[in-house]
Specification:
mainly alpha, 135 residues, elongated, 7 helices, Cytochrome Bc1 Complex, Chain D, domain 2
Length: 135
């Protein structure tokens, strides 16, 4: 199931406004995202790599308290599903304020994958697939 672009944009704007109201610093969050190597798994724009951040609708990236809890539980408690893929981020490594900054930055990222009807090559393929085959 996909979220409509308009609804997604409204949601992201609301999350960004909420983050700004709490004093989160998007620019600092971007710096921290790269300093802590988040891009190595999540990609530079949050939609490539091992784990997408953008467009998933996951509460891990749409709810600030869930995001921070996830970072802390991985570090301070034994994860339900142990994994070495996601690094641990205890409060000594990433403060709550820094985690809020990272969360704010993540929520500025946008999906940039074009719709099929906006991609000429894909549209041509789909259009030709609907035509009768001629020998």
């Amino acid at each position: 199931m996909t979220i409509g672009r308009g609804r997604l944009i409204v949601t992201m704007v609301l999350l960004l406004v909420a983050a700004m109201a709490r004093g989160a610093d998007v620019a600092r969050g971007k710096t921290l995202f790269f300093e802590h190597g988040c891009y190595s798994c999540h990609g530079y724009g949050g939609q490539t790599g091992a784990r997408d951040l953008v467009g998933t609708g996951s509460p891990l990236v749409t709810d600030e308290s869930t995001f921070i809890t996830f970072l802390r539980l991985r570090a301070n408690e034994a994860p339900l599903l142990p994994s070495t893929r996601m690094p641990n981020f205890p409060v000594e490594a990433v403060s709550d304020a820094q985690a809020r900054d990272i969360f704010a930055f993540i929520n500025t990222l946008r999906l940039d994958t074009p719709e099929i009807d906006q991609e000429p090559a894909m549209k041509a393929i789909l259009d030709s697939a609907g035509r009768e085959y001629r020998k």
